[in-house]
Amino acid sequence: MQITVEIPDEIVQRLDQTLGNLSRRLLEIIVADAYNCGKVNTAEVRQMLNLSSRLETHAFLKRMGVYLNYDEAELEQDLQTLQEFRGE
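That's the UPF0175 family protein sequence above. Prediction below.
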């Protein structure tokens, strides 16, 4: 889906100069907010922003000031993975 946002040209130019790629910045803000509200998960964040790894996704969320939604089930899965790597 493509969404169009109408902003006066002189404001867009000023915002592009201070924020960089305005389209990308708006996408990042929307995705971070959607994650924060529980509408998307980290895999979806990674997909929408075309991030290369889970760690890059976590770094993005941290940069945006969004805490990871890390629940007990994810903790158990991580502990199980750790045990498998240790050979326990």
